[in-house]
């Protein structure tokens, strides 16, 4: 059964489940949104690491089971980043065993189901049925083989068929009946998967099916002749660069079109025309009132780990994926030429945390392993919730700029060390900070 075209509202909801939060009334075409969802899912598979160019011929890779030192497939298929690992650890310290609830986020559910499939493979390549609680949609699947790209990346070769309520295909009926008549139906693995999660899984399966070498023809059961051949890779959270690429909006805060004007009251939010501004007024009004007459201070920043040329650093971002070696060890800062941090906010205001570097400061681990530059309050960190911008401002760069912002932190912040403020990116290495409209404390 060919994949159903999803309404744009569903595509936007699926993108949001992956932390891709586009403008509410984005004018991106349906085709462009559909393409963005497919590309984002490719990125969550870290596809270019395994299949830099199509086609993929599974026979060119050894069997996962031939290497007895390989970890269980369940463990190998698990993917998480530093931020998620920290959140899970902190939750468990508080006695919360399951900090990520099921059936609340389609993308997180997909990752959980893939681990369930991996766990099933560890106990034999048995048939699998994924269906929603109301049994309105289901996917019949069997893992034919598991190949090894490397000792941390299994490639699951599968056949599958999608069915919807009152439309069970003849192939799926015969497939299920075959296990029932053989008395082996109890070996079938049943996984609860919401319809939204199935949309994501089907998109992965259909996209990967086209990436298989046409010469690859594995042995299938006679009841699987109508099934589609594909493969699955481990799926994890988007990395920082992908997050920036798919979230970037440099235009109207409502639709994303090029912004030609800004709010005349606060001067902070930009729009493409009067219609979008009028549409946004109800939600923008509280902030607009707060920003009206506000003072914005420009700042020039550097990357947070480049304040000490010649030092060695251990760069750890919350978006670094633990299993793929994203964490760079012992990087000589004097020999690296990093560009500016990606602008994931465009010209839209966003909340940042400003933290003065002090010997008594508490917060995330400092990005450079070694001695802090004195802890005397002569610099401060600025970062957003996603840590897509994580930068430092030095007093030596511009004392007047620095002191204006530091005064807000010391007089209005927690213990005079930390405060949340509104910010706007104004250039690759510059931003404006709102000095007199401090934000409520954020639970990041």
UniProtKB/TrEMBL annotation:
MYND-type domain ranges (all copies): 252-288
SUPFAM superfamilies the record matches: HIT/MYND zinc finger-like
Matching InterPro entries: Znf_MYND
GO molecular-function terms, A-Z: zinc ion binding
Keyword Zinc: yes
Gene3D superfamilies for the chain: 6.10.140.2220
Top-rank taxon: Eukaryota
Keyword Zinc-finger attributed: yes
Record key words, sorted: Metal-binding, Zinc, Zinc-finger
This protein's name: MYND-type domain-containing protein
């Amino acid at each position: 059964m060919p994949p159903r075209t999803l309404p744009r509202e569903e595509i936007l909801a699926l993108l949001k489940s992956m932390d891709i939060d586009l403008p509410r009334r984005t004018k991106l075409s349906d085709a462009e949104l559909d393409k963005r969802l497919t590309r984002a899912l490719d990125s969550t598979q870290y596809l270019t690491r395994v299949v830099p160019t199509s086609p993929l011929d599974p026979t060119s890779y050894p069997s996962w089971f031939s290497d007895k030192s390989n970890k269980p497939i369940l463990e190998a298929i698990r993917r998480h980043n530093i931020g998620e690992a920290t959140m899970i650890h902190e939750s468990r310290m508080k006695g919360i065993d399951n900090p990520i609830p099921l059936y609340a986020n389609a993308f997180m559910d997909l990752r959980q189901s893939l681990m369930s499939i991996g766990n099933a493979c560890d106990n034999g390549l048995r048939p699998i049925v994924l269906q929603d609680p109301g049994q309105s949609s289901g996917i019949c699947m069997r893992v034919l083989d598991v190949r090894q790209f490397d000792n941390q990346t299994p490639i699951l070769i599968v056949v599958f068929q999608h069915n919807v309520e009152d439309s069970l295909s003849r192939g799926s009926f015969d497939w299920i009946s075959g296990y029932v008549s053989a008395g082996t139906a109890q070996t079938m693995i049943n996984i609860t998967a919401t319809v939204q999660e199935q949309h994501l899984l089907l998109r992965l399966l259909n996209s990967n099916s086209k990436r298989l070498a046409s010469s690859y023809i594995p042995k299938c059961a006679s009841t699987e002749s109508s099934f589609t051949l594909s493969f699955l890779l481990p799926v994890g959270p988007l990395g920082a660069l992908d997050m920036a690429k798919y979230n970037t909006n440099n235009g109207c805060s409502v639709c994303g079109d090029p912004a030609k004007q800004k709010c005349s009251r606060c001067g902070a939010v930009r729009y493409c025309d009067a219609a979008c501004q009028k549409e946004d007024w109800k939600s923008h009004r509280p902030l607009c009132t707060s920003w009206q007459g506000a003072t914005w201070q420009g700042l020039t920043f550097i990357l947070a780990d480049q304040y000490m040329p010649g030092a060695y650093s251990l760069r750890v971002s919350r978006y670094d994926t633990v299993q793929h070696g994203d964490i760079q060890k012992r990087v000589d800062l004097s020999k690296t030429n990093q560009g500016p941090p990606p602008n994931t906010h465009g010209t839209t205001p966003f909340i940042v945390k400003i933290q003065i570097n002090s010997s008594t400061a508490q917060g995330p681990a400092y990005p450079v392993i070694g001695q802090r530059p004195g802890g005397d309050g002569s610099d401060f960190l600025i970062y957003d919730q996603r840590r897509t911008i994580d930068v430092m401002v030095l007093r030596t760069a511009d004392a007047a700029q620095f002191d204006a912002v530091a005064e807000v932190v010391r007089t209005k912040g927690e213990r005079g060390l930390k405060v949340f403020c509104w910010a706007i990116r104004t250039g690759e290495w510059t931003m404006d900070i709102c000095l007199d409209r401090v934000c409520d404390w954020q639970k990041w």
